[in-house]
Design a protein that fits this description.
By secondary structure, this protein is α/β, with parallel strands linked by helices. 42% of the residues lie in helices and 26% in strands. The protein is elongated.
């Protein structure tokens, strides 16, 4: 049994298809099939039920999969650690983060990390927090920033979570238009009367905002829905409507104005997460330190963001 066999097994299990797995691994399909067959002979069990157009794990395969994933993750950590002893001149960090953080905290953290460690390869995965937890579980990312509504933790594989920031959701409007309120805050009832640009339903922000309106027995005046973050902000800049966004996305955007929500406010917790059972490689540990320090700096720049460190 070797790592290449395990890597092939994990990829076939992930994709449920030999052809797609061989393409993902840049390996000829007959070679991949031989790897799996050899692995099954060495273990004395069948790992896949094979049927035309359908591949499924046997009970033995289901038992092997999490162990194989851990072995590959540990092997990768060892490889990177050996290559990074001399001052982090080489290595790789696979970072995951929600799109709303990629245009703010992550952009600043990556910039700072790259300036300090230019030889380390960086790979960024943008996705929702629940999917990022799944990717941490299978070793697809090394470390991830995840967002959770206050009191509602994202469940999943055993993770080490480090809460970094408590961030308010604020109402954003065009700085070229009149202010939304004569008060420093705005309540949900007033917000429900304004033309609202709503995010795509895949956004956790949309779920949080909809839940707040339902709890207050309010129906928002939606003028546009289904947009992604960049598009939402551009529509707001042009005065199409207002939107509820994390406070952090407004940093360094003078064309937009943020108004804090009055009670009940909406807050999310930003945490740094990694698997508890995998020793982080030095480059990953260094990235975590940079993210922690960058988060503390961001919190000092906006009263709607509170450091939890």
């Amino acid at each position: 049994m070797n790592l290449e066999q395990l890597r092939g097994f994990v990829e076939v299990a992930r994709l449920g298809h030999f052809t797609r797995a061989s393409e993902s691994l840049h390996l000829a399909q007959p070679s991949l099939s031989r790897q799996i067959s050899t692995l099954e002979r060495e273990l004395g069990v069948e790992l896949f039920h094979r049927a035309r157009g359908h591949i499924a794990l046997t009970s033995a395969g289901e038992t092997l999969l999490p162990r194989a994933q851990r072995m590959l993750a540990e092997a990768e950590a060892i490889r990177e650690e050996m290559g990074e002893i001399a001052g982090l001149r080489r290595g790789r960090v696979r970072l995951g983060a929600p799109p709303t953080l990629c245009i703010s905290l992550v952009a600043e953290a990556i910039s700072a990390f790259h300036a300090e460690h230019p030889g380390v390869d960086l790979h960024l995965t943008e996705s929702g927090s629940r999917l990022l937890v799944e990717q941490l579980a299978v070793g697809a990312v090394d470390v991830a920033l995840i967002t959770e509504s206050a009191g509602q933790a994202v469940s999943g594989v055993s993770l080490t979570r480090t809460p970094l920031l408590a961030e308010e959701l604020v109402v954003v409007s065009s700085a070229a238009r009149p202010t939304l309120s004569t008060e420093p805050t705005i309540d949900l009832a007033r917000l429900a009367e304004l033309p609202l640009i709503a995010f795509d339903e895949s956004y956790e922000l949309r779920t949080t905002t909809d839940a707040a309106f339902r709890a207050a027995d309010l129906t928002p005046t939606t003028v546009l829905e289904g947009a992604e973050m960049d598009a939402v902000l551009r529509f707001v800049e042009r005065g199409v409507g207002v939107a509820v966004v994390p406070a952090m996305v407004l940093l360094d955007r003078p064309e937009l104005r943020a108004t804090r929500l009055a009670h009940p406010s909406m807050t999310r917790i930003i945490s740094l997460a990694h698997r508890s059972d995998v020793t982080p490689a030095p480059a990953v540990a260094a990235m975590r330190r940079v993210i922690v320090s960058t988060a503390a700096e961001v919190a000092r720049r906006d009263p709607a963001i509170t450091s939890l460190r």
